[in-house]
Design brief:
208 residues; Arc Repressor Mutant, subunit A; 2 domains; 4-stranded antiparallel sheet; two-stranded antiparallel sheet; 8 helices; globular; transcription regulation; WH-like_DNA-bd_sf; Transcriptional regulator; FaeA; WH_DNA-bd_sf
Length: 208
């Protein structure tokens, strides 16, 4: 990928960050990163805001614009929504629920097989993230004091989920089933409820 694409991908996966942090993550100098960011700004793909933190000059924090997010498009989103509407018209909400349940069943089986081979708790969570990344969710795992955070930086079914919220209910149920009864999985941030991404907290039930 080009430096331009590297920066866009980094901003997709990050909270707002400085040009220096962009440079450090992509191997560019701060000045080089700033130049790329300014060109991306002129193209309408990124924008910045200033943040005051204590004394000193405000920090300029960069993030993607809506057009920047659209560089990571949902695949076939219009067709998907159209098909869902046809299913609802022909078979009602019950038919749509059956479709979602079949998708959920296939995911459960695939995730169970992958997670069953995990060699540790950490490996188990990271295998779940790997499965999600293969499906286009750009998933990342961050270890915390009480467990893990599973962060999904992209939602390839966003258009479908907006059309039918049961897709999101289904995914949380699949995570809980895949991790098993010894774990608690909670959604902490939701893309469709004004979140910047979907974020889940995973911990051992005994740690409650």
């Amino acid at each position: 990928m080009s430096a331009r694409d590297d920066i866009l991908t980094l901003l997709k996966q990050s909270t707002p960050i400085t040009a220096a942090e962009v440079g450090q993550a992509t191997g560019l100098t701060s000045m080089g990163a700033r130049g790329h960011l300014e060109r991306l700004e002129r193209d309408g793909l990124v924008h910045w805001h200033e943040e005051v933190a204590g004394r000193g000059r405000p920090r300029r924090l960069w993030q993607l614009t809506e057009s920047g997010h659209e560089r990571f498009p949902d695949r076939h989103d219009n067709l998907t929504v159209e098909l869902l509407n046809h299913i609802r018209t022909l078979f009602g909400d019950e038919g749509l629920d059956r479709l979602i349940n079949e998708r959920e069943k296939a995911q459960r089986e695939r995730y169970r097989q992958s997670l069953a081979e995990a060699e540790s708790d950490d490996d188990k969570v990271r295998r779940l993230a790997s499965e999600r990344s293969r499906e286009g969710y750009m998933a990342e795992v961050i270890a915390t004091d009480g467990g893990w955070e599973l962060i999904e930086h992209h939602c390839p079914i966003c258009a479908a989920a907006e059309s039918c919220q049961n897709f999101c209910r289904s995914e949380l149920a699949v995570f809980r089933d895949a991790m098993g009864p010894d774990y608690v999985v909670e959604r902490e941030e939701h893309l469709l409820q004004d979140g910047q991404r979907c974020r889940y907290r995973i911990r051992h039930r005994e740690s409650e």
